[in-house]
């Protein structure tokens, strides 16, 4: 019986991997997400035990999606990220009561801009959110890394957006600084920060310096055929 379960698990694993690997497509452009108001907490390493309470009791989990901002690679020894709940996806601040509840429970508030240009990929929820998230990490992250390196793109941070029906990975290529929460400024603006998807490539050290010092998008325009961008954009 145990052997049969193992075989079934392996077959399901292969099937899901095939679906995500060959059917889910990575995209370059404007993701289907607008300006967000997010209540978050920041962690240099561990999960927040009270985040589920915040989602289920302080807010209705049926109304609000969750989100994470990753400022280090998920394989790093110390993972730094902000974990939170999307209070509004229209850029309009919610009512004062929600903001009060968020702050009362130790959460900070950040407003992000609408993302005009990014690398992104969407994984439909398959079987469960946990299983989908695992595949999104093991399939999505390497795919985005390879995609960005081939096109000499420098994007940060990595955004994970969770909804009822999907897990979306987004790497902004413009206005990246506006996705940096206050608690992450030391690692992002300091010399410790390296682009999440370029830090393995030592040959692109000059690009990494630009990412660290200027927090800009590095584009190889020859590799961006079909892109809406018509010129190199940097942010000083």
Automatic annotation (TrEMBL):
It comes from Nezara viridula (Southern green stink bug). This is Uncharacterized protein. GO terms for cellular component: autophagosome membrane; endoplasmic reticulum membrane; nucleus; replication fork. Keywords: Membrane, Transmembrane, Transmembrane helix. The chain crosses the membrane at residues 6-24, 118-141. It comes from the Eukaryota. GO terms for biological process: protein-DNA covalent cross-linking repair; reticulophagy.
């Amino acid at each position: 019986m145990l052997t049969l379960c193992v075989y079934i698990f392996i077959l399901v694993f292969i099937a899901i991997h095939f679906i995500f690997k060959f059917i889910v497509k990575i995209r370059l452009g404007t993701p289907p997400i607008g300006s967000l108001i997010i209540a978050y907490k920041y962690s240099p390493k561990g999960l927040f035990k009270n985040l589920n309470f915040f989602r289920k009791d302080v807010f209705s989990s049926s109304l609000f999606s969750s989100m994470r901002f990753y400022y280090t690679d998920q394989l790093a020894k110390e993972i730094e990220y902000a974990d939170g709940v999307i209070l509004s996806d229209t850029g309009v601040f919610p009512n004062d009561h929600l903001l009060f509840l968020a702050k009362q429970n130790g959460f900070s508030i950040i407003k992000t801009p609408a993302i005009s240009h990014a690398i992104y990929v969407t994984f439909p929820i398959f079987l469960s959110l946990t299983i989908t998230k695992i595949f999104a990490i093991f399939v999505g992250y390497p795919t985005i890394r390879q995609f960005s390196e081939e096109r000499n793109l420098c994007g940060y941070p990595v955004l994970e957006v969770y909804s009822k029906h999907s897990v979306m990975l987004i790497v902004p290529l413009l206005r990246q600084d506006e996705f940096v929460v206050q608690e992450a400024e030391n690692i992002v603006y300091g010399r410790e920060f390296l682009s999440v998807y370029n830090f393995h490539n030592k040959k692109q050290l000059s690009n990494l310096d630009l990412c660290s010092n200027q927090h800009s998008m590095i584009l190889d325009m020859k590799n961006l055929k079909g892109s809406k961008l018509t010129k190199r954009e940097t942010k000083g």
